[in-house]
Specification:
Elements: H1 24-32, E1 36-41, E2 44-48, E3 58-59, E4 62-63, E5 77-81, E6 87-92, H2 103-106, E7 114-115, E8 125-128, H3 130-133, H4 139-157, E9 169-171, E10 176-178, E11 185-186, E12 191-200, E13 203-208, E14 220-223, H5 230-242, E15 246-257, E16 262-271, E17 285-290, H6 291-298, H7 313-322
Parallel strand pairs: 1-6, 12-16
Antiparallel strand pairs: 1-2, 1-4, 2-3, 2-8, 5-6, 7-8, 9-10, 10-11, 12-13, 12-14, 13-17, 15-16
The structure holds zinc ion.
Length: about 325
């Protein structure tokens, strides 16, 4: 797929500087010199934009030692070096407790709340849900934010050795955790998920989860299981969820999706059958939608069906299908 890397969170070519991860002296000197750190609170990067975070948004990086980083739980993680050679780190400041937090908002399907740190005098800076702002960040900022969210979420849930249960320590500038008790070494996990544009003639298969916003339909998706190829996972998921038999499968595009650690593998597949049998454990509904009807859905003008979220790979694949640009 020629446009495959135009998807949100695609690489912007950030140099991840893996060669610096063992260089403790370089890291200490970079931090001592006030290297840029992206503060992240409960998975939400600190950003600057307008007070309501509408319009364009940029990451609010702060120098190491800045008061907003005072509550960082562990040493910053090295994300890479920018095009000018400046290092970029990220740190988890989830231990900070805002004066007021609307927990229902923070845990909502799409958290629209913004938490403002008292060390930030600028009223237009705060912690914002990445999904709400992802399409309004520059490609470089989106890559940094997605990487930061994924790696920090991994650290927050992998503080103890999976082999022996002892507390593990951060090594490799944040890209590994080691266990002193048993010698175990643990690496950040990435979970492959297939998401597939299944067509039958001029129709595309969509479904909806009961947990999604009302009316929202998207492409079917599911985790790749151990011992399975991407193609087999596509066929199994579509058969399990919708009862549709899929023949040929082709890879199209991938998208890092840090919720919490997925790598979405966008594929297309040709349906060999048409009668839908929904698995109620997985889906509330599934249906075929014609190209003409999908044009209306995608434009947000359908009376019953809401489109896939802008910025998500499903939206990207459907858009490219509608414009005949899957090749
Ligand atoms: Zn251990």
């Amino acid at each position: 797929m020629k446009r495959s890397e135009a998807v949100t969170f695609a690489t912007s070519g950030l140099d991840r500087a893996a060669y610096r991860r063992k260089d403790a002296t370089w890291i200490i000197e970079a931090l001592a010199a006030g290297a840029a750190v992206l503060p992240v609170w409960r998975g939400k990067p600190m950003v600057s934009g307008s007070a309501e975070m509408t319009g364009s948004v940029r990451l609010a990086l702060r120098p190491y030692g800045h008061p907003v980083l005072a509550m960082a739980s562990e040493e910053p993680v090295l994300l890479g070096v920018d095009d000018d050679g400046a290092p970029i780190f990220t740190a988890d400041v989830s231990d900070w407790v805002p004066a007021e937090t609307d927990e229902d908002q923070v845990k909502a399907f799409l958290d629209q709340s913004v938490q403002r740190h008292p060390a930030e005098s600028d009223a237009e800076t705060g912690f914002a849900e990445l999904r709400a702002i992802m399409t309004r960040l520059s490609p470089r900022d989106a890559e940094i934010a997605a990487t930061a969210r994924a790696i920090l979420t991994w650290h927050s849930t992998h503080g103890f050795c999976a082999r022996c249960g002892a507390k593990s320590t951060v090594t490799e500038a944040g890209w590994q955790r080691d266990c002193a008790a048993c010698g175990g070494r643990h690496f950040p996990r990435t979970d492959p998920v297939v998401i597939m544009l299944i067509t039958h003639g001029d129709e595309v298969l969509v479904g909806r989860s009961p947990f999604w916003p009302e009316g929202m339909y998207s492409l079917l998706a599911g985790f790749v299981e151990p011992g399975e190829t991407v193609e087999a996972a596509v066929r199994r998921e579509v058969l399990e969820e919708a009862g549709i038999v899929v023949g040929r499968v082709d890879y199209l595009s991938s998208q890092p999706w840090p919720y919490p650690a997925s790598l979405m593998l966008g594929c297309k597949g040709v349906a060999l059958s048409q009668d839908i049998t929904v698995d109620p454990e997985e889906l509330e509904d599934a249906r075929w939608i014609s190209r003409d009807e999908m044009l209306v859905v995608h434009a947000g003008q359908h009376p019953q069906i809401a489109p896939a979220r802008k910025g998500a790979i499903a939206h990207f694949l459907i858009e490219n299908w509608l414009s005949d640009q899957l090749d």
